[in-house]
Amino acid sequence: MKNTKRENLLNILSTVKGTSAVSFNTTTSVKMNKTNNPYHGRVTKVSKVNGIVGFNYKNSCNNQLEREGKEKNFKPQSRKWGKHDEKIPCVINHTNKNGEFKQYVNLKVQSTSDKPKYFLDDEPINKEVIKDFLPQSKKPNTQKNIDDEIVVRDYDVDSIDGMSIKKMKIEF
Fold first, then answer.
1. Residue 3 has what pLDDT?
2. Average pLDDT, 10 consecutive residues per value, the chain (172 residues)
3. Largest CA distance in the chain
4. What distance in Å separates the CA atoms of residue 143 and residue 58, rounded to the nearest whole number?
5. Rounded distance, CA 172 to CA 163, Å?
6. Residue 146, CA distances (Å) to 45, 63, 64, 96 in order
């Protein structure tokens, strides 16, 4: 059985040339600390994120350094996992250690709209209940010289429920 949601999203992204502004509606598994955590593996987050696909990370960081009045000397490290798709550059292809092939959309996050909604076993839950089990967010070591962090996220194609791009709104 074909995954038409995945195919539709990839077909749309294959038309992107250069950079494009997008909004994604996503449902993602929440990364949590495992130790003594009764919620681990049971929490999902529904959110809307606005960003840019087709961006150049090095250029984005150097442009930010310039805005901050600093020398444009950013040198990115190579990706630790996955490779950019040859036909759809904003897509990252990755085969995990179990041999499972997955695809991710590489997004430079500009903002998040609305407040994300959290669910425990598909029932709404207040973030305050789980906050002690969430890992601390930290700035990438490569951006230590940049004051205003360039936030980049890789969204599993299967976690994207809808998107807006080039005046199109699509629900999957």
1. 66
2. 76 92 96 96 96 96 97 93 95 95 96 90 96 90 92 95 91 84
3. 53
4. 11
5. 8
6. 29, 10, 7, 31
CA separation for the pair 56, 59 (Å, rounded)? 5
Query: Do the Cβ atoms of 146 and 68 come closer than 8 Å?
Result: yes
Question: What are the DSSP calls for the chain, one per residue?
Answer: ---HHHHHHHHHHTT--S-EEEEEEEEEEPP---TT-TTTT-EEEEEEEEEEES--HHHHHHHHHHHTT------PPPPSS-EE-SS-TTEEEEE-TTS-EEEEEEEEEEEEEEEEEEEETTEEE-HHHHGGGSPPP---GGGTT-SS---EEEEEGGGEEEEEETTEEEE-
Of 98, 112, 126, 114, nearest in space to 39 by CA: 126
Six-digit token pair at 32? 């949590």
**pTM score, two decimals?**
0.90
